[in-house]
Each structure stands twice: as C-alpha cells, then as structure tokens.
Amino acid sequence: MPATFEVAAAVFEQLPNLRIAVAVARGLDNRQVRPALAAEWHAAWQSAAAAAAPYGNAQSHPRVKPWRDAFQRMGISGKQFPSSVEALLRRALKGSEPFAINPLVDCYNAVSLRQVVPAGAFDLVSIQDHLELRLSRAGDTFIALDESGASEPLAVPPGELSYASGARILTRHLVWRQSRLGLVTPETRDVILVSEVLRELGPDVPTAVCDEFERGLRQHFGVAARRWIIDADQPVARW
C-alpha cells in the first residue's frame, strides 16, 4: 500500500489560498555532524534577523503578517498561536546565537528563515507512512513537547486545522505547535518535509521552497527527494 499525504477539502474551505511544498526522502543519516550545514544555518539566522529588523518585530514582516491575518479571519488568536516562522524569526531578532537541534531540523529551519515561511518535518516511520492535514475531531489527542519530556496526551477540541496520523494530532493550528509524535530525531531516516505557503507571498514561493528542500537533502545528506506542491486541485501525494 503506498504511503500518502492527503489534505482534506475542509482545509481549503478555510484557507482557499493555501499551497504546501512537500519533499520526501528515505535512507538519510541524521546523526553525522555536518559543519557545512551548521554554517548555512548560522548564516540564515543572521541574514533573516538583519532583513527583518526594519519591520520592528516578527509579526509585521510582510511574509509573516499574512498568517496573522488568516488566523484572524478564522477566529484564531495569532498572538496566542503564532506561526512557527513568526516564533523562529522572533528568536533570531533577539540577537542571540542560533540554537541547534539536529542536522535535518537545522536544515529545514534554515529554509524557513531564508524563505520566511513555516517549515517542518515528520518522521515517516513513526507515523507509519500516513499523514493527513484535516480538521481535528472528537477523540483526537496531542502529546505536547515540553522540557521535562513527560507529558500526558491532551484531548484536542474539534475543528482545529491539524496535521494528523490516525487519531494522533502531530501539529495543532496547522503552523503552530508540533507533537512529540512524528518528531525528527538523530535516528530519523525517512522523512517528509512540508512548508505551508499562502498565495499572498507570490506564485513562485512553493517552487522555491521545494528547490531548497531538494537541494538541502542532496547536498547535505546525499539523498534524492520526491517533491510535490499540494493545493485544492492536487490534494494528495503518494509515493
């Protein structure tokens, strides 16, 4: 049975201008130290902070503000649930040194800051090769990341835009907070990378993000990627 990523029609009813850049790669080594990638991540962090500084804060950046506006139209607090790129850019603007998680996370975070779009990834093995983007429903649960590493599953209210695998919610509010389930770790070998792009950012951005995903996987990890741009006309990727 093929692995799949599918976006429900209800998602496009709420965000008709959403497009998602997707890349899938298998057999990578995420344990090896990669100095060239570390340098690239550092450069992306510094460049993004410098470019965003004239706007005064992360949420005013012209590629971040559309997420605040989209959430406001859906009745969601952008302040309470900031997009991942807003949170990342806010940290960069503080002037501190970039944090490092593991090579693959640093790689897609660098793409996020260079393109100023949300970007993330899921371990395909831990989600059994099946990923959905849908509205949450009764019975869905979420295991939040926290510093202690000990968190109980939380019931998720129905109606949230969510990445999910079965009844397990992987990311709440589409671009907000990721679960411990599906998390990319040094042991991750098979991965799906995703980046959510609103049309206000321009027609070429999803392709540019796919190009960056593909280049990073090839250049830093030596693996080929399959790629898609998901939208209302093509809501499914299979591989």
Give a description of the structure.
The structure is a single chain. The chain is of the alpha+beta class. 31% of the residues lie in helices and 23% in strands. It contains six helices and twelve strands. It has helices at 9-14, 35-52, 65-73, 84-93, 103-115, 205-221, and strands spanning 4-7, 18-25, 120-123, 130-135, 141-142, 154-155, 161-165, 168-172, 177-178, 191-198, 226-230, 236-238. The strands form two sheets. Strands 1, 4, 5, 6, 7, 8, 9 and 12 form an eight-stranded mixed sheet that branches. The chain has a four-stranded antiparallel sheet with strand order 3-10-2-11, with helices on one face. A hairpin with a 4-residue loop joins β8 and β9. α2 crosses α4 (84-93), α2 runs parallel beside α5 (103-115) and α5 (103-115) runs antiparallel to α6. The longest helix is centred in the first third of the chain and has 18 residues, at 35-52. It is globular, with a radius of gyration of 17 Å. The protein starts with a strand and ends with a strand. The mean pLDDT is 95.
Strand-helix topology:
Layout: E1 4-7, H1 9-14, E2 18-25, H2 35-52, H3 65-73, H4 84-93, H5 103-115, E3 120-123, E4 130-135, E5 141-142, E6 154-155, E7 161-165, E8 168-172, E9 177-178, E10 191-198, H6 205-221, E11 226-230, E12 236-238
Parallel strand pairs: 1-4, 5-8
Antiparallel strand pairs: 1-12, 2-10, 2-11, 3-10, 4-7, 5-6, 7-8, 8-9
